[in-house]
Design goal:
Order of helices and strands of chain A: HHHHHHHHHHHHHHHHHHHHHHHHH
Radius of gyration of chain B: 25 Å
Radius of gyration of chain A: 26 Å
CATH topology of chain A: MetI-like fold
Number of helices of chain B: 8
CATH class of chain A: Mainly Alpha
Largest sheet of chain A: none
Strand content of chain A: under 5%
Largest sheet of chain B: 6 strands, mixed
Largest interface: A-B, 31 and 41 residues
Distance between the termini of chain A: 51 Å
Distance between the termini of chain B: 38 Å
Number of strands of chain B: 21
CATH architecture of chain A: Orthogonal Bundle
CATH topology of the largest domain in chain B: Rossmann fold
Order of helices and strands of chain B: EEEHEEEEHHHEHEHEEHHEEEEEEEEEE
CATH class of the largest domain in chain B: Alpha Beta
Number of domains of chain A: 1
Strand order of the largest sheet of chain B: 7-8-9-3-10-11
Shape of chain A: globular
Strand content of chain B: 35-45%
Oligomer: heterodimer
Number of domains of chain B: 2
Shape of chain B: elongated
CATH architecture of the largest domain in chain B: 3-Layer(aba) Sandwich
Structural class of chain A: mainly alpha
Amino acid sequence: MNSSIGTSVPGRSRAGSERSEAFAQYSIALFCLVLVAIPLLPLILQAFSAQPLYGWDGSLTFANFVHLFGLPEIPALAGTTLLFCVISIAFSTIFGTVLALLVGRTDIPLRGALSNILLWPMFVSPLVIGFGAILTYGPSGYISGLYMRFTGQSAPWDIYTVWGLSLMSGIAMVPMTILYCISSAQQQDPRLEAAARSAGAGPLRIVSRITIPLMRPAIVYAFVMNVVAALEMFAIPLLLGGPVGIQLITTFIYDKGFEAGRPDYGLVSAAAIILLIMVCSLVALQHILLSRAHRFISIGPKGGRLQPLELGGWRWPAFGLVLLYIAMTMGALGFGLLLRSFVSILTPFISPLELLTLENYRDVLFNPTYRQSVINTVLLAVIGGFVATAIVGAIAFVAQRSDFRMRGTVDMLAQLPRAVPGLIVSLGVFYAAIFVPGLGIIAGTLWILGLAYIIRYLPAGYGIVAPALLQVTQDFDRAARVAGASWAMTMRRIVAPVVKPAFLACYTLMMILFLKEYAAAIFLFRPGNEVISMTMLTAWIPGYTGIVSSLAVIQIAITAILILIATRLFGVKLHG
Amino acid sequence: MADVVVQNLGRRIGNLEILKDVSFTVAEGEFLTLLGPSGCGKSTTLNALAGLDRPSAGRIVVGGETFYDEARGIFVDARYRNLGLMFQSYALWPHMTVAQNLDFTLEIRKLRGAEARKRVMESLELVDMAQYAGRYPGELSGGQQQRVALARTLVYQPKLLLLDEPLSNLDAKLRDRARDWLRDLQRRTGVTTIYVTHDQTEALSLSDRIIVMNQGRIVQHGTPTTIYETPGSMFVADFVGASNAFEAEVVGFEEGTARLRLGEDTHILVRPEFTPELGERLTVTIRPERIEAVTGDSAAEPNDFSVLVDATSYQGARTVYGFALGGQRVRFEAAAGLDSDTTARIRLPVEAIRVYRADA
């Protein structure tokens, strides 16, 4: 090695390149702030403005809230929402915990396959679950018809009630509970159960005294998430409650927002703010719970493998019960949708073979609106999902991997939309398009849907990338910096490739979420930027159930193909 | 290569002063070690030198270029310092091959093509890793990763090499070999090196000079021999090498030596570098290997004692014995030969004993 001073980092003035580095970080942080502010600021302003935002005179008022709470239907609305929450959450928590224990901790047959299948509803839009519910369990549904055929009486259930729509919503919420409980059940220290076993405890005692108490943080966490999900639940109440006049807070906002003539924007915003405050406080509560839950986790080497609890004689009956649950929920709903998409009328009284037709799919294919909606949905998922992943990455780099002064704020901002229900993102972006000069250009295009989707799912993507970044040692960055690399170069060439699996998982999740999203689009769609969810909703109103079913099947098929490609080809792990 | 001047370096986070008034210089081509227990400020000093952490007071000049000067508001970021820093974790980028890891640092310096390839191979040959150029870090053993990490810091010929506990992730046997190899490599390249460790063996065997740090300050500064033979304080005596330590009271003076009372009727002679007062309590230290077992009938000297050896611990090359002296437990080392529970003649040579004031 020669003795001269080594090769130094070339050219460019230090001050200049340091400035451009800071500029890049400021821009990303500002962009994050704008993303989060777009749906919230106009909404908050509107809630305190007496006029619609486009004619706002700058004065602030509480009149909208006074008006809202003075409405005669509010007590009933609150009561129904509460009852809905109680039933759907109870269903989700009980079924979710029991199913998670059965497939996660016992020697039930086919436990791996079962635990995968039980999570499937997560990847399907609640809108599709609602359609499926009506087609199977509705007054003229397939199963209701079967019941009539065999008993001669009409079915004793009615899903067009608070109970009916709560239970159907519960089905959509169960997978989330399972997901939290299953990982908690499987991550327990096996020594704790082994100790109980060697002390003479039987399986039932182990479950009730060791396993479930240890799962408490996960159950509590899942419970809070269920409350959030129930408050946000919109599609199923709309489909099942709408026709009979049952209103929850979300459907109230929707109805008022689309009220004939001039919608009362102030009233809608005030209701949205109330919903926002409820969800925000729950998300805050869940943050506190989560930070405390870490104390429950025992860190250290695992003492051997977790041994499945033996069900003994209950092994096959338990398996039967899980199968029955799957058959009655996603099995029945999926079968109803699939069958309906291939027949001219859905009825158990005539053999489906006689009614077989491809007409529904032909309609979808040849009707420009439907075809366009499928293309739009795929475009949004593939391109929008990619853009979302890039934005998530840039924000996560600033928040987790920079010297940026306000990186803590950026970290908080990126997680904030978690507390904003999809319907409210939609409403907020809708107002922003009216209020923010220049933003009106993208109204009615796919861009505005993409914007709303990205805002809505920013926290979901950040929730995958940020923890992955935390697990990568900062020494990698420091080594690159000492070697002379700029921040941007370090992120692009060192950190990004190291966390590539997290980025792939993020992109996959974004595509799945964008495929099934409906709530964020509801106030934003116009002829031309329709997506599958929206055309399903419009086709449902005049009763084109065949077309709705075929669209739903197409949506599910695209999601399934996507998940297959991601998990098989790219080795993406979506959970666990 | 360059010389280093560090002046009155300080680092304060809130009310916590983690570095205080640290000053030293390193000559061109010198190997300097910062030695101390965890939390002593050695890594903070290294990060300040590397430019990864901005100190709150002082000045750092490397090769005539001011990297940091609080008074003049200068702070050059790590990126522009052109130093080599090797991490305890090695921090080899896992998605790049060995050659790519080295080449990336050259790419930043816009050094491409044949010249870059030549430099990469030269550096890998220097650490005997040329045949592993195409491997990924995950496919290498700990010792090989350590070599690659060093090659990566050397490939762009940094002004200064900073090493942060580079051997602590190796197992004991490998660590001994790596130490010799590292010393040899530093001599061959002649790069100015600052080495951080808490391992006194590494510090003693590698360094031209050692700086011992404690609680954010420099406590002693000298060659390995000075540090080991004449520790300046009780802390250094204890931290660098094992020491017997006990308290004793000054009871008299005789021709340059002081007489200390250890127990009821046990007195030892010491030669302090300061003038103690009568009745003052001093801390006395002596290294276990400096205590001699007196054999035969050699004439009695000061500090000869007849003791009962009541503990032995065989450690292969040497044996550690224990006995009680004036109510204090004392350990000493010898090749072998004493039996347990026998009376032996022991000598504590006056020149081997160091005394400190109780507050030092």
